[in-house]
Amino acid sequence: MSAMSAGLAILPGSGKVSRQRGSSPVRRPLAWSLGVVALLALSACGKKETPPAALRPVVAMAAVADTHSVQSSLPATIEARYSTPLSFRVGGKIIERRVRLGDSVKAGEIVAKLDPADNAKNAASTAAQLSAAQHQLTYAEQQLTRDRAQAQENLIARAQLEQTENAYAAALAQRNQAQAQAALSADQLKYTTLVADRAGVITAEQADTGQNVSAGQAVYNLAWSGEIDVVADVPETTLGSLTVGQKASVTLAALGGKQFAALVREVSPAADPQSRTYRVRMTLEAPTPDVRLGMTADVAFARVSASGASGTSGTSTQAFTLPSTALFHAGKLPAVWVVKADGALELRRVDVSRYGERTVTVSNGISPGERVVWQGVHTVSAGEKVRVVAPLHPEDFAS
Fold it and tell me: Which keywords fit this entry according to its UniProt record (predicted)?
């Protein structure tokens, strides 16, 4: 090791060695510590920080209350209030059908016939039996008249008169039985002709010419003329707002959107086991001749206020029209996803008052200005934080 490396200096001209001030051994540990700190700092700078998780983007828009009145609208069909099957009261082979599907019939008009041969023979047989019983009764009556006259003169015994009276009673019973049987056979012969008991329209055909049918088997279905019903199936969320006697507006698209007034006549007390909807029947007021059975309709039910009057007044319920893609179901109940201020999702229960072709009208769950998820409702979960984006093609969500 040289003198310079040891921190010593040789004075020129003297040969003496002197120690330099800036090379003290005490400073070497300090320099080593500083180097370690620098290495640690460099190693720390070399590590990459983990980026925050990306938020899921969702299409959400602020809810805007509808300006029109709150109504509940549902699809419906036009039906006859009364519709009954037409059937023969006796069995046999159909030999003639006089009406077809869609034909109008009058009350008492013949619509079909059975082969009457067997029934005609039966009627003839019972008529002959009735004639024989009537002759037997006439003879018994004459015998009774003679015996009563002879009994008054004491020409015959009392027992003989009683036998004559018994014979007359038996003959009378046989005549009555034959008379009833003959009447039944005559009716059965008459039943081989099927007659429309009401005026109406044939809406179905269940049997054809040459077919053997049993008694009571439907041959036609007759929709009675007169009152017309509007039939709709409503969900349980709408059921609470409907009452018997409530007014409704019926719009028929087939007649260019022509509207008719109707009254709720009947609300089913139990839900359909398959669709879980309740059937509501309304009577159409003042239908015109162009209203045809089977037409589809759109029924709008006016909300009922707390006072019980129909109409849109007296209610503070706000309605919001949303795309159908915004509707979610919490179990069996409709709901929507709402984005809160912190970006977290909340599931809100709503009431659906109208189902449109591509939209739904909801109420009782959201407020104006709240951001409702329009798309991707089945890919998110409650409490999840999301990033709100506008729809790429707003025209896709136009009502």
Answer: Transport
In a domain, 170, yes or no: yes
Q: Which among 153, 179, 195 is the end of a domain?
A: 195
Q: What is the CATH number of the domain that holds 238?
A: 2.40.30.170
Please say whether the dihedral angle defined by the alpha carbons of residues 314, 318, 323 and 326, taken in this order, is positive or negative: negative
Q: What CA–CA distance (Å, rounded) separates 33 from 273?
A: 83
| pLDDT tens per residue, range 330-360 | 777 888 999 998 888 899 888 887 777 788 8
- Cβ–Cβ under 8 Å, residues 47 and 377: no
**Is residue 46 situated within a structural domain?**
no
Helices and strands, number each (H, E), in the chain: 4, 25
Q: Give the residue, 198 or 315, on which the prediction is more confident.
A: 198
CATH at 63: 2.40.420.20
In a domain, 272, yes or no: yes
Token pair listed for 204: 């179905």
Q: What is the structure's pLDDT at 7?
A: 45
- Please provide residue 32's backbone torsions phi and psi, each rounded to the nearest 5 degrees: -65, -40
- Nearest residue to 52 (alpha-carbon basis) of 385, 361, 346, 395: 385
